[in-house]
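Re: that backbone. Tokens:
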């Protein structure tokens, strides 16, 4: 299919800065009239251009003054999990002054960086026909001093871009091999020793992860360095709480150059059997929306950016994190 990822990337950025009078025109040029957009809770499913405009874009533009889109990763490739249709995947920050409430989160009047994970499906006419978005609302609350979850895991901070600074429309060579590496890691990560929490092939000589790997987690978890740090600051706590978690239910897997991106909506199913971030489970059956972005180098995974819809996850546990944060 003939489509222009540069035009689509520019069009997405323009939606934040164009005059309000031209927004409908910009939307029609970028999206199919029947576009379907799934956004993290509390926005959820939006059907058609009007819904995308009124329930996603207009609130963003009203809340974040002088909003600028700052892409760290933006890749495109054919979807290995679909019928070969093209997809775009991005890690971006929407930067600006938080001037008005956004989806129930009170504004703080200061500079914020709202990280967003994006997957966009491109249709036959070169316009976007569907998309999945996870704006990290828990991290936004953290930036405002209103995070309702305890800070007990990794380092809570604004994400860096790739160490190599080449994540925006990278050269497409080797994308299939990069995705092969990531898929191998995901397959072996599924099984683990319940005593040590270790999975085969992850580290060491010939392992999937580089010795100096970085793992950038979402609000509520935070980021960490090296695989032992990943175990300590995320994996052991997660598996202890959700020992039967089953992931990999992905609608999209793409690879371009040294980058790969995968996502499921939901990706994981599990039961809550332990204590996690201050919440104790009672066997609740849960699902988790997931986005993972990877940079690989020399046959190993060097960096991993992860978006998780924890507002939706905790909703299933009976908690409204946005309302809790607003009351702090």
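Recovered sequence:
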């Amino acid at each position: 299919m003939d489509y222009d990822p540069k035009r689509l990337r520019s069009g997405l950025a323009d939606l934040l800065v164009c005059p309000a009078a031209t927004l409908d025109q910009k939307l029609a040029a970028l999206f199919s009239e029947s576009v379907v957009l799934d956004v993290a809770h509390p926005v959820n499913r939006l059907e058609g251009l009007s819904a995308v405009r009124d329930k996603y874009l207009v609130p963003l533009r009203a809340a974040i003054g002088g909003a600028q889109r700052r892409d760290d990763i933006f890749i495109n490739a054919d979807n290995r999990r679909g019928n070969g249709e093209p997809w775009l995947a991005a890690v971006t920050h929407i930067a600006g002054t938080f001037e008005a409430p956004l989806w129930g989160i009170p504004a703080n009047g200061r500079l914020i960086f709202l990280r967003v994970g994006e997957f966009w499906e491109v249709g036959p006419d070169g316009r976007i026909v569907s998309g999945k978005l996870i704006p990290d609302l828990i991290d936004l609350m953290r930036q405002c001093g209103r995070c309702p979850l305890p800070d007990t895991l990794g380092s809570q901070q604004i994400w860096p871009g790739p160490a190599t600074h080449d994540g925006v429309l990278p050269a497409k060579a080797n994308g299939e091999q990069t995705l092969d590496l990531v898929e191998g890691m995901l397959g072996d990560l599924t099984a683990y020793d319940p005593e040590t929490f270790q999975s085969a092939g992850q580290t060491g000589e010939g392992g999937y992860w580089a010795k100096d790997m970085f793992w950038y987690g979402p609000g509520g978890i935070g980021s960490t360095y090296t695989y032992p740090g990943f175990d300590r600051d995320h994996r052991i706590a997660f598996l202890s709480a959700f020992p039967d978690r089953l992931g990999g239910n992905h609608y999209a897997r793409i690879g371009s150059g040294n980058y790969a991106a995968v996502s499921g909506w939901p990706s994981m199913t599990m039961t809550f059997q332990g204590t996690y971030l201050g919440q104790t489970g009672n066997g609740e059956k849960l699902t988790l929306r997931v986005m993972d972005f990877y940079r690989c180098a020399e046959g190993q995974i060097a960096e991993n950016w992860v978006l998780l819809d924890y507002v939706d996850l905790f909703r299933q546990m009976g908690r409204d994190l946005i309302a809790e944060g607003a009351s702090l």
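The first strand starts at residue 31 and ends at 39. The radius of gyration is 19 Å.
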